[in-house]
Design goal:
Elements: E1 2-11, H1 17-27, E2 31-36, E3 40-47, H2 49-61, E4 68-76, E5 85-87, H3 108-114, H4 158-165, E6 186-190, E7 193-196, H5 197-209, E8 214-217, E9 222-227, H6 231-241, E10 250-252, H7 255-261, E11 262-263, H8 266-273, E12 279-284, E13 300-304, H9 309-315, E14 322-327, H10 339-345, E15 352-356, E16 368-372, E17 375-380, E18 390-391, E19 399-401, E20 411-414, E21 417-420, H11 430-447, E22 453-457, H12 464-467, E23 475-479, H13 481-492, E24 499-509, E25 515-523, E26 528-534, E27 537-538, H14 543-547, H15 549-572, H16 577-588, E28 595-598, H17 599-609, H18 621-628, E29 643-647, E30 650-654, H19 656-667, H20 672-697, E31 704-708, H21 715-727, E32 731-733, H22 745-757
Parallel strand pairs: 2-5, 8-15, 10-13, 12-16, 19-22, 22-23, 24-31, 25-28, 26-30, 31-32
Antiparallel strand pairs: 1-3, 1-4, 2-3, 6-7, 6-15, 8-9, 9-14, 10-14, 11-12, 12-13, 16-17, 18-21, 19-20, 20-21, 24-25, 25-26, 27-28, 29-30
Helix pairs in contact: 13-22, 15-16, 15-17, 15-19, 17-18, 20-21
This protein binds zinc ion (ZN) (2 copies) and fe (iii) ion.
Length: 759
């Protein structure tokens, strides 16, 4: 008889780990105990040597689907002589790691049962188990328990209860356990009345086939759904939703269906099939046969697999293989999740509503990820990932990062755990701000930390400034936008010490009151020094110049080249002479013309010069259209002329020669794709040259360099820049678990505050 203790670290609490240990202990005739403690799960085992080995093998090779094992530490122990194996109360109950379970896609075991006509959950759209189903979205209060969730209104039937109470059943303590006799049910509403259960589902499929738009209640909110192969239905959805060109996400029946329209690599397949089941942005492949209007002008398409049993049933025995599944929120407003609001808001959009009576308590959007060089590049971190905590080397207790104005999120610290909330959206209207406040107060209520430190952006006008006034914080720490991006990337890679940072994004408030967004910084989580930036030009009209990038292009040319620039702008935009004159006057008189030097605006300007579109109908559209032209290309022999000027110990980039040249090339008929490629490579080479200069003139020893800011979703920029910097001996780091865009800002702010506080 041998004995040992086994500590399992990682995501092992709240994922059915103790019942799993119980089961494999019994399987291998092992006695002892299992319990949760501060770090994870602690196991004491006694048994025959070979049985212990078999137990340890199972423990590491077949853990529960939702668990993530970071480490297993095995130590010899004294035999106690237990009678059996048992689950015992947590060590230091209540003080162990806080577990907020995340929503998970339906598992294969449940799917098998759902498709088995002999099973009492045959075709049941809410089948789930300990390893799958709703979690975060249905929690009312902690600890996570059925009575504190929106399942509390459903009384378990004897069959479900038996499974729920049986420690060897795969639904042991599955809080949302349900069946057709006792659980939630679907209803299809329309002008003609209501249908329930299977007839509701069948009718929905029929309607979609017939070209209808149906609002479907999912896990974290409502989707608008139509047949992705039906050109008319897609066009109608776009018109009704007032979404002219932003790509629509689709849901495909299975991997085979996806492989018919998109190129797939191993990482993308496993991401699609993961319990998190995000939307994965894939490259369309030759033979892509869906209508162009799904993702107009794009070489990529956002695809997900069905992730709820209900979704799977929509595809069952259906010749439709692809459904448009776009969040059912009116433009600019948060995702709809509340049944009452749905009918009001979607009155003009959807004809039919497939609803169910399991209440969504916390709306959450689909997560969106693209895989770049085999790494996850989060574009939106939400369903499936939120609010899984991220471990920090700092004490982050009682710190809240309030995030950005765009793509806003918040981040809460508890001991060494950081909980980043879901993607909320742009805090520019009442509804979204209320949504932010509600979700923040819920998460605060659950994690129960004192209000020690608020970390906020330097920008004086961000909505977060008002929101934080509701809480009695002991201190408020202001964090510069790009420093927060830098700190987020440092922590995302678990780095320490000094680093270089290249931060490229659309907008961030600078220490000098100007708009920054093309920055080379040096420093750490506590402080930074600005080493290089893009020279400023006025942005007359502010927001308007962002929505209509030709204004931005015209303004840049006039600011950089005076009368020559005016002539060029007039030649580019002959129908806009009046507007150009107004822009010039605004700049001269300094009326609503903030100074800006950002990567996003530079890309916008080049896009507008190349005539890629007059208006951006969604955030970053102009820049995305420009980058689309270089998809699949890497490297270019030619670059444009530019200057790197030096003054006050700061480098400043001047791309005015490049812009003028681009105008001439465009006017003389050079293809936009050639201009775009040469432009992209110019930016890469300019940054590399800047880094070489800085390395030479500064005494800084580090070779580590972090890349952050929303512009790094641009595959060319990220991949080429990383390659060139690596060639020159830099160690290059980009984001792994958080978005490089402003969705990661709250996390970075929190890190800066923790580092400053810990000094
Ligand atoms: Zn399951
Ligand atoms: Zn039941
Ligand atoms: Fe930013």
């Amino acid at each position: 008889m041998s004995a040992m203790t086994v500590a399992v670290l990682g995501r092992v609490q709240g994922v059915g780990f103790r019942p799993f240990v119980f089961k494999i202990a019994n399987k291998h005739r092992i006695i002892g105990t299992v319990q949760n403690n501060m770090d994870g799960v602690k196991i004491h085992i006694e048994g025959m040597e070979t049985d212990l080995e078999a137990f340890l093998f199972d423990l590491q090779e077949n853990p529960p689907r939702l668990s993530i094992i970071d480490d297993v530490i095995i130590k010899p122990a004294k035999a106690v002589g237990y009678k059996d194996f048992s689950i015992i109360p947590s060590e230091r109950a209540g003080a162990s790691m806080l577990v907020l379970p995340v929503d998970s896609a339906v598992c294969n075991d449940c799917l098998k049962e759902m498709n088995d006509p002999a099973n009492f959950r045959f075709d049941y759209p809410f089948i789930n188990c300990t390893q799958c189903g709703p979690r975060y979205t249905i929690i009312r209060d902690l600890p996570y328990d059925r009575t504190f969730s929106s399942m509390d209104t459903f009384r378990m039937c004897p069959d479900c209860e038996k499974e729920y109470k049986d420690p060897l059943n795969r639904r042991h303590h599955a809080q949302p356990i349900a069946c057709p006799n006792c659980g939630p049910a679907v209803t299809l509403y329309s002008q003609q009345g209501a249908l329930n259960g299977k007839s509701a589902l069948n009718k929905t499929k029929e309607l979609i086939k017939g070209g209808a738009i149906v609002a479907i209640k999912g896990l974290g909110g409502y989707h608008l759904c139509c047949d992705a192969a039906n050109e008319k239905a897609v066009a109608l959805l776009r018109t009704k939703k007032m979404r002219p060109s932003r790509p629509l996400a689709i849901m495909a029946a299975d991997i085979k269906a996806i492989s018919e329209i998109a190129a797939l690599n191993h990482s993308e397949v496993s991401l699609l099939k993961s319990p998190e089941a995000p939307i994965v942005v894939l490259r369309k492949k030759n033979g892509y046969h869906l209508h162009e209007n799904i993702a107009p002008g794009m070489s990529t398409i956002g695809v997900m697999l069905p992730y709820t049993p209900l979704h799977h049933l929509l595809f069952k025995e259906n010749e439709i293989q692809y459904l448009v599944m776009t969040s059912a929120n009116p433009s600019g407003l948060p995702i709809l999740y509340n049944d009452e609001n749905v009918f009001d808001y979607l009155d003009d959009i959807a004809d039919y509503y497939l609803c169910h009576d399991r209440e969504i308590l916390h709306p959450v959007d689909d997560s969106v990820i693209q895989v770049v060089d085999n790494h996850n590049d989060f574009m939106r971190r939400a369903r499936g990932y939120v609010p899984d905590p991220i471990h920090s080397r700092f004490n982050v207790h009682g710190i809240i990062g309030f995030g950005s104005q765009e793509k806003s999120t918040f981040a809460l610290g508890r001991n060494s755990q950081i909980f980043v909330g879901p993607h909320i959206g742009s805090l520019e209207n009442f509804e979204t701000i209320e949504h932010y406040k509600r979700e923040l107060s819920n998460l605060l209520n659950w994690i129960q930390t004192p209000y020690l430190t608020a970390a906020i952006d330097l920008h004086p006008g961000y909505a977060a400034r008002e929101i934080l006034k509701a809480y009695p914080f002991a201190e408020v720490i202001e964090v510069q936008h790009h420093h927060a991006h830098m700190a987020a990337c440092i922590a995302d890679n678990e780095l320490s010490g000094e680093v270089w940072a290249i931060i490229l994004d659309g907008t961030g408030y600078g220490e000098d009151g100007n708009i920054w967004g093309f920055e080379i910084l040096h420093g750490n989580e506590v402080e930074y020094e600005r080493m290089a930036h893009l020279s400023y030009t006025p942005l007359p009209g502010g927001e308007k110049a962002i929505k209509e990038p030709w204004r931005n292009a015209g303004a840049m040319l006039m600011a950089q080249w005076g009368e020559e620039g005016e002539a060029l702008a007039a030649e580019l935009y002959p129908s806009k002479t009046t507007e150009l004159f107004i822009l010039k006057t605004m700049m001269n008189k300094k009326i609503n013309s903030p100074l800006a030097g950002t990567c996003g605006r530079l890309f916008d300007a080049v896009s507008a010069i190349c005539g890629l579109g007059e208006v951006s109908t969604y955030d970053g559209e102009a820049a995305i259209k420009l980058s689309e032209l270089v998809e699949g290309v890497m490297g270019c022999d030619e670059i444009y002329s530019f200057e790197i000027k030096e003054g006050n110990g700061l480098l400043s980039y001047d791309f005015s020669l490049m812009l003028k040249r681009i105008v001439h090339e465009h006017l003389s008929g050079k293809a936009a794709s050639e201009i775009s490629l040469k432009f992209h490579e110019t930016i890469v080479q300019a940054l590399v040259q800047g880094m070489e200069k800085l390395k030479k003139k500064s005494a800084f020893a580090t070779r580590k360099i972090v890349l952050s800011g929303g512009s790094f979703h641009n595959r060319y920029l990220k991949t080429r820049l990383a390659a060139e910097l690596s060639d020159r001996g830099f160690e290059v780091y980009s984001h792994k678990k958080l978005p490089c865009n402003d969705g990661g800002l709250s996390f970075g702010q929190l890190i800066v505050a923790a580092a400053r506080r810990g000094k």
